[in-house]
Design brief:
Structural class: alpha+beta
Shape: globular
CATH class of the largest domain: Mainly Alpha
Distance between the termini: 37 Å
Radius of gyration: 21 Å
CATH superfamily of the largest domain: Butyryl-CoA Dehydrogenase, subunit A, domain 3
Largest sheet: 4 strands, mixed
Strand content: 5-15%
CATH architecture of the largest domain: Up-down Bundle
Bound molecules: flavin-adenine dinucleotide
Strand order of the largest sheet: 1-4-5-8
Amino acid sequence: MNNVYQEGKDFAKSYILPFTEMTDKESRFPEESFKKLGEKGFLKLLIPKEYGGLGKGLEEHAQACLAFAEACSTTALCYMMHNVALMCIQTHGSDELKRRIFTDVIEDGKFLALAYSEFGSGTHFYIPEMTAKVNGDYTTFTGTKSMVTSATYASYYLVLAPSVEEGKINNWVFPLETRGLSFDMSKWNGLGMRGNSSGPMHIDHVTLDSSFRIGVEGSGQEQVFNVVAPFFVTGLGAVYSGTAMHMFEVASNHAVDRQYPDGTTLANIETIQVHIGNIYKHAAAARAITLEAARAGANGEADALAKILTARIVASEAAIECGRLAMRVGGGKAYNKSLPTERLLRDAYAGQIMAPSADVLAVWLGKALTGQMIP
Ligand SMILES: Cc1cc2nc3c(=O)[nH]c(=O)nc-3n(C[C@H](O)[C@H](O)[C@H](O)COP(=O)(O)OP(=O)(O)OC[C@H]3O[C@@H](n4cnc5c(N)ncnc54)[C@H](O)[C@@H]3O)c2cc1C
């Protein structure tokens, strides 16, 4: 795969777009698209070549998420989380864990999800309240994760739990079929991202041996900061700038196509031209800073963190602003849902609240720029 963005666009046209509307309308996980993501190699994008993957990194992760989000925000978001989870296994997992999970992804099209947030600590997902009791090589877990995207569809769930070392956390892998694991899918009724299947996961005395822990005891925070943060936050930037770009496409096509009885179109009206220009401006700026953040992150540049945080904030805000303007361009047709604009606007609203939320990130950005500690 040489040009991940273009190959992602081609893939999305054939295997994502046909399901996008149904994904939202029926609040249905994009299973068909995920099956194809496996068959066409996208699920193994970040798996190292020596394990049979494509060996790509942060830049290609952003490109793939962007390309998919330009067709379906839900599919892009679920895919993005799979990549983040894979990266934790890749950077910190034991060879045994890598072989098991990478083989399942490559040979059986299995995928991963993040079960981090809890009802109590909410947006501060790196402070788990669930319990983890250690007995020799075994740990027994109890608690509830509040919103788990791809719940019941993913085969492996990364779970943050307290470490035996005071104040530290661990990152674990829970296989779907683990005894004591259950999901309550009746609780997912999102405003947007309706196909995400983001229901709670109940963990009732789940017992696992230490081979399911990713990395050494107490290394969870380090994984959250060095792996989850760059891949997740850049990935969110890509998902929401892709959503904004999708809005531009819908609004500009509509402006050109919508004809009045005298033969003129919406695109002939100056105010509409200004709206289209502004939608493009916001979407293109979000996309540009996201790709630049991914490039800086991949090269370990000094200002990468600031760029990554900025990208996610700019993209979340751009998607909502593009949606607001696109509704004005779309008029009654957008409001009455004959255009997908309102769906895209509903999807866009998830951007500002997904942890770490845009407000929390705004504080982190200020800290990063002034040399303060980020939690
Ligand atoms: C579509 C979608 C998919 C999701 N998928 C997953 C998933 O796969 N895995 C997962 O683990 N979680 C997932 N989540 C959960 C998400 O990441 C958050 O943890 C969750 O939305 C927090 O909700 P809450 O009501 O508990 O927020 P609260 O913690 O109650 O926060 C409420 C509001 O207050 C603001 N706030 C709180 N503290 C601060 C602060 N210190 N500074 C500034 N503002 C603050 C927040 O920005 C937020 O908007 C998903 C959420 C959405 C919307």
